[in-house]
Amino acid sequence: MRRGWKMALSGALRCCRQVLSWVPVLVIVLVVLWSYYAYVFELCLVTVLSPAEKVVYLILYHAIFVFFAWTYWKSIFTLPQQPNQKFHLSYTDKERYENEERPEVQKQMLFDMAKKLPVYTRTGSGAVRFCDRCHLIKPDRCHHCSVCAMCVLKMDHHCPWVNNCIGFSNYKFFLQFLAYSVLYCLYIATTVFSYFIKYWRGELPSVRSKFHVLFLLFVACMFFVSLVILFGYHCWLVSRNKTTLEAFCTPVFTNGPEKNGFNLGFIKNIQQVFGNNKKFWLIPIGSSPGDGHSFPMRSMNESQNPLLANEEPWEDEDDSRDYPEGSSSLAVETET
C-alpha cells in the first residue's frame, strides 16, 4: 500500500515537473507574440505614416520573423539523438557486469567491450565511459542528461528556454535560432529608434501606441545584449569545435587529456556543425555530417597530414634507411 502511494506521488511530481518545464518556453512565446503585435500593428500600421516605409518595414520584418520562428520551433521539437543499440550492453553482458563485485574486473570487461566500438575518450581515471543508468558505453562526446533522463549524442547543454537538450541532432538549429534572435532584436531596435526619439521629443501625439513603441525598444535592446553574448560564446565554441561541456571539462583521450582534441581547423570546425554545402548553412535543415557516434579527431587528422605533424613521416624516412650495424638514426641526423 505504502509502495503504491510512493509510486503515485513520484508520478505526480514527475508530471508537475514536465508541465513546469514549459513555463520558460511559454514566456518566450508570449513576449514574441506581443512584439509581433506591437511592431506590426502599433508601429507599422498606426505610427508609421509613409505607405512605402510601412511596406518595406513589414516585408523585412516578416522575412526575419519567419526564420526566427522556424529555428525556434526546430530547436524545441527536434528530439535529442540517443546512442544506437550497438553501444548498449547485451542482456548477457549486463548480467555479467552487474553480478561482478570486483571493480577492476568490471573495468576490464568494459575495456574488452569497447574494443569493438569507435570509442576514444575516457574518464578522468582512464576508464571506459559507461552510463550505469542507460546501461551503455558512451560514444565520444556523449553525456547523460539528468533532465531528459537519457544519454544524448554530442551533448552541449540542456536549455530551459527551448525545454530540450541541445546536442548533435539540433545544435545547428539552436545556433541558427540565436543568430536570427539577434537579428530580430537588432532590426526592431534600429527601426523603432527614430520613432522612440519622436515620442520622446513630443513630435508624435501621446496615444496608446506610445507605450508599445517605447517598451518595444527597451525589450529589444535588453534581449539583444544577452543574446549577442550567448551567440558570441557559441560562435567561439564552434570555431574550436567544442561543446559547452568540453569547454568546462577537458575531454580525456586514450593518450590523456587534450583540450583541442576535436579541433580540425576553423573551416572544418564550422563544417562539423553546418555541413559541407554552404547553401544549407542559413536554413534550419539537418546537414551536420556523420551520425553523432564518432567524430574526426585532431590526432588522426595530423597523422594523415605531414604539414600538421612532420614527426612521423621523418621517423619513417629515417627508419627506412640502411644504417651500418651499430649506428643510429640520431647520429646520422646530427651529421646532416
Automatic annotation (TrEMBL):
GO cellular component terms, A-Z: Golgi apparatus; membrane
Q: What EC number(s) does its UniProt record assign? A: 2.3.1.225
The subcellular location is:
Membrane
Q: Which residues cross the membrane?
A: 20-39, 55-73, 177-199, 211-233
Chain intervals with Polar residues compositional bias: 326-336
Membrane topology according to the record: Multi-pass membrane protein
Q: Which biological processes are named by the entry's GO terms?
A: protein localization to membrane; protein targeting to Golgi apparatus; synaptic vesicle maturation
The GO terms describing molecular function are:
protein-cysteine S-palmitoyltransferase activity
Report the residue ranges that make up the Palmitoyltransferase DHHC domain in this protein.
129-247
Q: Which InterPro entries match?
A: Palmitoyltrfase_DHHC, PFA4/ZDH16/20/ERF2-like
The similarity annotation says: Belongs to the DHHC palmitoyltransferase family.
Q: What is this protein called?
A: Palmitoyltransferase
> In which organism is this protein found?
Loxodonta africana (African elephant)
